[in-house]
Amino acid sequence: MRGRARTWRKRSVLPGFGLSLGFTIAYLGLVVLVPLAALVIKSAGLGAAEFWRLATDPRTLAALRLSFGTALVAATINAVFGALIAWVLVRYRFFGRRFLDAVIDLPFALPTAVAGIALTSLYAPNGWVGQFLQPLGLKVAYAPAGIVVALTFVSLPFVVRTVEPVLAEIDRELEEAAATLGASRAQTMFKVIVPALLPALLTGFALALARAVGEYGSVIFIAGNIPYVSEIAPLLIVIRLEEFDYAGATAVAAVMLAIAFVMLFVINLLQAWSRRRFGYGS
Amino acid sequence: MDIVLQNISKAFDDYPAVHDISLAIRSGELIALLGPSGSGKTTLLRLIAGLEFLDRGRILFGDEDASAKSVQERNVGFVFQHYALFKQMNVADNVGFGLRVRPRASRPGRTEIRRRALELLDLVQLSGLEKRFPMQLSGGQRQRVALARALAIEPAVLLLDEPFGALDAKVRKELRRWLRDLHERTGHTTVFVTHDQEEALELADRVVVMNAGRVEQVGTADDIYDAPASPFVHGFIGESSSLPVTLSGGTILVAGRPSGLVGAGAGAARLFFRPGHVDLLRPGERGIAGVVTGSRRLTDRRRLEIAVGGSHSVEIDVPSLPETSGVLETGSEVVFRPREFRLYGESETAPRRAA
Amino acid sequence: MAAELSGAPLRISRPVRRGRSATTEAPAVRVALVGLVFVFLGFFLMLPLVAVFVEALRGGISAYLAAIVEPDALAAIRLTLIVAAIAVPANMVFGVAAAWAVAKFEFKGKSLLVTLIDLPFSVSPVISGLVYVLLFGAQGFFGPFLDAHGVEIIFAVPGIVLATIFVTFPFVARELIPLMQEQGSGDEEAALSLGASGFTTFLLVTLPNVKWALLYGVLLCNARAMGEFGAVSVVSGHIRGLTNTMPLHVEILYNEYSFAAAFAVASLLALLALFTLALKTFLEWRFAGAIAAERAH
């Protein structure tokens, strides 16, 4: 088996190709691809007209719009602060740096439901933060603003963790070169460093957005879940399922899945582009 | 522009990288800073550029004290070892960067910047590549883009850190000649760092030999090779062999025996000579006697390893003639005498001819 | 030679302005940025974490302990451990196999395979649960078949395990693949040339080379497996004492306004997260050299 020349792969002296690839594909297929295919087949079975009716239902559209809008805001906040955090972690040495570095991953490690109830208790009108916002007329919990807070929390590490390694690899010589050419620190920052980080920043932004759009656990506690106002798309899927409206759930899910695929595609394009042009990228 | 360094020192965490160096560079000169790694040559270059800050001393650009100026204000053209090109900018934008970041008052217009960039690319023979990105260029091309970028700001001095270090041997030779031509045409005061003595000797008007943060010698290629000022320079530039000797009554004793070489002074000293600068003598003649311990054929010569006085090993080159090949087997005794040599002792530096 | 050196050497060594480096910001700017990061992370990350423990202990220690040893809570803890004990090893084996295939061999379609492995990260957890409902649910493709044979997947433990495997699918693989690609096959080829068998090579050369990355992957995979909410919520049916995992139990308690109890169970999950982060940080600190060596391979 190993001895035969194959055209679709380079020969290698290392053993185990057939076994490892076979297992990988079988497991991937059974656990991920077949179930996802079920979703695609189910939504295809609805028929174009029915699918369109379900997908463009006003409540569905409102939910998708809300999921996207709040995810965009959260990803933008994280792009700005994530870049700043990455900069501080990579470039400065200060007391507590290792601690901060560890804390960044908290949203990856903390279950979303826990984050959800904790954020809700903080931002509720009588909560630690909410009691100060209430008199100002700011409503965070049980409103779209609360969704943004929760999504900011869960997608916080993405930008930091994609920008960090690229920033660490940026040669100090680049900044020195800019300085010898007369560029001020601000000019160096915005004309040299930020453009060099842009592919990583966009990748991190896209990853954060993808995560935030699909987020469920942390949002449902804080959102208030009022249809047309603070009901996110994943919650709508759950509601449709609980109503045994499988077709409705499938339609919303299919739209979200398509969006996820597009974003995955964009992320891959971004990385390929940055690798080709700049010779780096994750 | 003249560049004058006055007693400059720089230490990193108490490790003295540059120690009390003074040097005057004339306007238009091409100077090489040559030394082994860790000798402080790159630190010296970065101090001139303002990328590092002096602990002591000062640096003059012309009549102006540059020490207090920031790197941005010094107007130096610095070419980094790995070029430090901005990857996300194309070649023309890289070259024009220094002009684009000028304050509005002194910034040339967009078309003027582009014209200057193209002109410089023409100068470094990269016309037509202005739209390429650095990743799409060869090492030698990147080198020249970096040079054009440094020249674009009309620098007071051009500083190059190991300019050929990252290139392969063939490109390196071509670029070396080309840089020399370019220097003659543009006339910039230029300082470059290298650890390659051949490069330094071939390219520079004067070579500054550095060791352990100090200047060992400053001079032309001839000065440095023919009249090395210190044992370090003798050993570092070109090939050299050395032996401990004793000076007594105007003669030089090697392993306690007269060597037929004369030198003034008294006491212990060290004799340096080039392996190629020796004459093989007949047995019994007065010279340095030793036993051949190894023999290797080089292209047109034969290099002998010779044990002198039992324990000291030196290398000498002899013509590779048929009649010598049998005689110079391992174990045979030879007598040789350096045609030229130098003695370094406590007080001894002047060169002497063999008697 | 003396003429080459500059005229009169300066005796006085005038203190030169120490100036700041060309590649950093003014100290005030640095302090401000570090301060801003501390405030942002303190507010967005630390405050919620602190809130969990404060709320959990609001009713006192005894109420806290009572909420944890209550039978439904214990059942949820047991189920969470069982699910993780199945999902994590399964994904670990998969991750190692996938990394071996992808990193050590060149074949067509490799980049597609890598993209597909990452796919579950891009899918909403709710959808991860939904797809299994569509497959195995009462109205699903295999629903009637399973029903006829008395096999329960949805609203039962197997569904929870499957959904958990789906959402934690990429963790180990994505830790290992980039690392093993960087390392190349040199070590394995050397071992084979020295006469080691393929399996010995894998065991004695490949695994030790990636052990830290593997451990990271497993840690993250485990944290997510125990904490997954959305996907599990869709397939579990929320049957108390039977199909409730810890996060689901938290939700039920919270929706019943048993806030202190909800936060008590949540605090266990938060401790798990803290433990995961602490272990990761400790390993990074303790084995910084070994990890760098893995990377620099």
Automatic annotation (TrEMBL), chain A:
<dbReference type="InterPro" id="IPR011865">
    <property type="entry name" value="CysT_permease"/>
</dbReference>
<dbReference type="InterPro" id="IPR005667">
    <property type="entry name" value="Sulph_transpt2"/>
</dbReference>
<feature type="transmembrane region" description="Helical">
    <location>
        <begin position="192"/>
        <end position="213"/>
    </location>
</feature>
<dbReference type="InterPro" id="IPR035906">
    <property type="entry name" value="MetI-like_sf"/>
</dbReference>
<feature type="transmembrane region" description="Helical">
    <location>
        <begin position="12"/>
        <end position="41"/>
    </location>
</feature>
<feature type="transmembrane region" description="Helical">
    <location>
        <begin position="136"/>
        <end position="160"/>
    </location>
</feature>
<feature type="transmembrane region" description="Helical">
    <location>
        <begin position="102"/>
        <end position="124"/>
    </location>
</feature>
<keyword id="KW-1133">Transmembrane helix</keyword>
<comment type="function">
    <text>Part of the ABC transporter complex CysAWTP (TC 3.A.1.6.1) involved in sulfate/thiosulfate import. Probably responsible for the translocation of the substrate across the membrane.</text>
</comment>
<feature type="transmembrane region" description="Helical">
    <location>
        <begin position="61"/>
        <end position="90"/>
    </location>
</feature>
<keyword id="KW-0472">Membrane</keyword>
<dbReference type="Pfam" id="PF00528">
    <property type="entry name" value="BPD_transp_1"/>
</dbReference>
<feature type="transmembrane region" description="Helical">
    <location>
        <begin position="219"/>
        <end position="239"/>
    </location>
</feature>
<feature type="transmembrane region" description="Helical">
    <location>
        <begin position="251"/>
        <end position="273"/>
    </location>
</feature>
<keyword id="KW-0813">Transport</keyword>
UniProtKB/TrEMBL annotation, chain B:
<dbReference type="InterPro" id="IPR003439">
    <property type="entry name" value="ABC_transporter-like_ATP-bd"/>
</dbReference>
<dbReference type="InterPro" id="IPR005666">
    <property type="entry name" value="Sulph_transpt1"/>
</dbReference>
<feature type="domain" description="ABC transporter">
    <location>
        <begin position="3"/>
        <end position="237"/>
    </location>
</feature>
<dbReference type="GO" id="GO:0005524">
    <property type="term" value="F:ATP binding"/>
</dbReference>
<dbReference type="InterPro" id="IPR050093">
    <property type="entry name" value="ABC_SmlMolc_Importer"/>
</dbReference>
<dbReference type="Pfam" id="PF00005">
    <property type="entry name" value="ABC_tran"/>
</dbReference>
<dbReference type="GO" id="GO:0043190">
    <property type="term" value="C:ATP-binding cassette (ABC) transporter complex"/>
</dbReference>
<keyword id="KW-0547">Nucleotide-binding</keyword>
<dbReference type="InterPro" id="IPR017871">
    <property type="entry name" value="ABC_transporter-like_CS"/>
</dbReference>
<keyword id="KW-1278">Translocase</keyword>
<keyword id="KW-0813">Transport</keyword>
<dbReference type="InterPro" id="IPR003593">
    <property type="entry name" value="AAA+_ATPase"/>
</dbReference>
<dbReference type="GO" id="GO:0015697">
    <property type="term" value="P:quaternary ammonium group transport"/>
</dbReference>
<keyword id="KW-0764">Sulfate transport</keyword>
<keyword id="KW-0067">ATP-binding</keyword>
UniProtKB/TrEMBL annotation, chain C:
<feature type="transmembrane region" description="Helical">
    <location>
        <begin position="123"/>
        <end position="146"/>
    </location>
</feature>
<feature type="transmembrane region" description="Helical">
    <location>
        <begin position="191"/>
        <end position="207"/>
    </location>
</feature>
<dbReference type="GO" id="GO:0005886">
    <property type="term" value="C:plasma membrane"/>
</dbReference>
<feature type="transmembrane region" description="Helical">
    <location>
        <begin position="153"/>
        <end position="171"/>
    </location>
</feature>
<protein>
    <recommendedName>
        <fullName>Sulfate transport system permease protein CysW</fullName>
    </recommendedName>
</protein>
<dbReference type="GO" id="GO:0015419">
    <property type="term" value="F:ABC-type sulfate transporter activity"/>
</dbReference>
<keyword id="KW-1003">Cell membrane</keyword>
<dbReference type="InterPro" id="IPR000515">
    <property type="entry name" value="MetI-like"/>
</dbReference>
<comment type="subunit">
    <text>The complex is composed of two ATP-binding proteins (CysA), two transmembrane proteins (CysT and CysW) and a solute-binding protein (CysP).</text>
</comment>
<dbReference type="Pfam" id="PF00528">
    <property type="entry name" value="BPD_transp_1"/>
</dbReference>
<keyword id="KW-1133">Transmembrane helix</keyword>
<comment type="function">
    <text>Part of the ABC transporter complex CysAWTP (TC 3.A.1.6.1) involved in sulfate/thiosulfate import. Probably responsible for the translocation of the substrate across the membrane.</text>
</comment>
<keyword id="KW-0997">Cell inner membrane</keyword>
<feature type="transmembrane region" description="Helical">
    <location>
        <begin position="31"/>
        <end position="54"/>
    </location>
</feature>
<dbReference type="InterPro" id="IPR011866">
    <property type="entry name" value="CysW_permease"/>
</dbReference>
